[in-house]
Write a structure and sequence with these properties.
Largest sheet: none
Radius of gyration: 20 Å
Helix content: over 70%
Strand content: under 5%
């Protein structure tokens, strides 16, 4: 019995991790040298972390629901769906609002905005890559177990 499974290449995995690290670095640099008030800086740091964590939670939620549909199992509760989506949009909206209302140079705002959106995009890509690796590992372990049982 031969099992075919998709695995991401090492080059892709390295690119995903390097992109995520670069995005986090750019956000960190932008926030570390953020001109203006300490309160603005604290708000933006919290906003970036809120956006980052909700992006990972949303990616997991969407993937888990897709898997549940394929397996015919019940998905998460409607309340959890509401909490996940609301948290993500609230995090993005509040962080964007905080960025737009800050009294700093427009070029600096653009740098912070682009690095923030790059971080969120990389978070979704990283979450997918990690989940794909996990699923391939599970499938491979099951196939190895079946081979041992058959022997």
């Amino acid at each position: 019995m031969k099992v075919l499974m998709h695995r991401d290449t090492s080059a892709w995995q390295i690119q995903v991790w390097v992109s995520f690290a670069l995005a986090a670095f750019l956000c960190g640099v932008g926030l570390a040298w953020l001109p203006g008030k300490d309160l603005d800086r604290a708000f933006m740091v919290m906003g970036y972390f809120f956006c980052l964590t909700t992006a990972f939670v949303l990616a997991k939620f969407v993937r888990d629901n897709e898997q549940s549909r394929r397996e015919g199992k019940p998905a998460d509760t409607p309340m959890f769906r509401y909490v996940v989506w609301t948290s993500f949009f609230l995090a993005m909206a509040l962080t964007g609002w905080g960025l737009l209302r800050m009294e700093i140079n427009e070029t600096y705002k653009a740098f912070l905005g682009v690095s923030w959106l790059y971080l969120i995009t990389c978070a979704f890509t990283l979450a997918k890559t990690l989940r794909d690796k996990h699923e391939a590992d599970v499938l491979e372990a099951r196939a190895a177990s079946r081979v041992q049982e058959a022997a």
